[in-house]
Each structure stands twice: as C-alpha cells, then as structure tokens.
Amino acid sequence: QQPVQSPQAVILREGEDAVINCSSSKALYSVHWYRQKHGEAPVFLMILLKGGEQKGHDKISASFNEKKQQSSLYLTASQLSYSGTYFCGTEDNFNKFYFGSGTKLNVKP
Amino acid sequence: EPEVTQTPSHQVTQMGQEVILRCVPISNHLYFYWYRQILGQKVEFLVSFYNNEISEKSEIFDDQFSVERPDGSNFTLKIRSTKLEDSAMYFCASSTGIRNQPQHFGDGTRLSIL
Quick one: closest CA in B to A38, which residue? Predict the structure, then answer.
C-alpha cells in the first residue's frame, strides 16, 4: 500500500540539512525518489534497491533499509533550487508501485 | 533526450462531457501509466498498461475511465461524464518495464471541469 512520508513539510534556510523519511508496511524491492516543483511534472532523482545501499546525486543522497522497509533522503547544504515536493515511490516484490503523499520542502535565503 | 509528451496542456470542459487526454510515451518503453494530482495534493495512481492491456488499476479508475493505445505511439485516457471533482492535473508516465528503471513523466494536462 501507499508508503508513509515524514515530515509533511520542512522549511529550511539555505545551507541547512534535511532528512525525509519514507516507510512501508510491505516488503519492498526498491524505492524511488522524485522531486516535483510547483506546476511541473515529477522528476526522477534516484532508485535504491534492496540490499541497504546508499546512493548520491550531488548533495542529495538516500539510503534504503530493507529490513525496516524504510528509506531516507538526505539533503545537505540545501540550495534554493532544492525547494519542491519530494515523493518516494515504493515497488514491492510483486511489481506494484505506490507513491507516498509527499514532503514539501521550502528553502529560504 | 527522449521525453513523454502530453496534449493538450490545458483542457476546459463542461461537466457531463467526455474528454480524451493524449500521451506519447518514450518510443522504446513498454509500460505506460496515468496519474492524477488534485491541486495541492499527492500524485495518485490511476492505471498502468502493458502489452495492450491494463495491468493494474486503482480504486479511482472506475467505469468512468478507460485507456487505449489506438496506434503504435499514442496512449489515451478517456473520462466519460466528467464531474467537477475530476478537475486535476493528469500525468502520463512511461518506463522500460525493466525493474529498477524510473518512470518518466510528461508535463501533464490540466483538466478544468466547469
């Protein structure tokens, strides 16, 4: 079913760090992270596979704890361009994909 | 870079009318999706389509909705007897179908029901 994201919203000053969490009640095969800016389509950031790997994309990285069925997205030294809504998407072992409800990130100067 | 294209970008329709939203997925992709996003809310899955048939659909995707791949390139979402609450942004996405590959989204069609 739909993963749960927390927090629902974050306000940061430029240069601050943030963590966005995504958890599922079901066993997961992979976790996808997307960012959506206001009025635009979601844009793919990264995919994490079961196995607990961590990935990075510039100063945005993520981890996936398969046993806990959780993923976290880490934004370090946030920039104004990081503002948007972050969605996790979870894929279970039966190829079913669900988006989380999103976390609104607002980075202020 | 190949992209998913959607038309029209904005559709205004009277309540009760039928609308068809069009999408051209990336050419070598095999899985196609429709999502709905009501203003300010989350992205909601509607339906996925593979091998010329629906592979998954959500509770939202009831008899009012249908999808079709009328030719080798287009993927359409038809909404019959539109209601005010159908007003939303509708996104089409496609993927290769290989596990662990991302979905690529189109820019969306904003549907406004009057």
Answer: B40
Q: Is there a contact between A40 and B101 if contact means CB atoms under 8 Å apart?
A: no
Instruction: Determine whether the interchain pair B105/A41 forms a contact, defined as Cβ–Cβ distance below 8 Å.
Output: yes
Chain B residues touching A99 at Cβ < 8 A: 35, 42-45
pLDDT digits (tens, 9 = 90+) for A61-71: 999 988 889 99
Long-range contacts of B57-60 (CB under 8 A, 24+ apart): B60/B36
Residue of A6, A16, A1, A104 lying closest to B41 (CA atoms): A104
Q: How confident is the model at residue A53 (pLDDT cuts 50, 70, 90)?
A: low
| pLDDT at residue A52 in the model | 58
Amino acid, res. B5 = T
Q: Residue A56: pLDDT band by 50, 70, 90 thresholds? A: low
Q: Measured between alpha carbons, how far is A81 from A86 in angstroms, rounded to an integer? A: 13
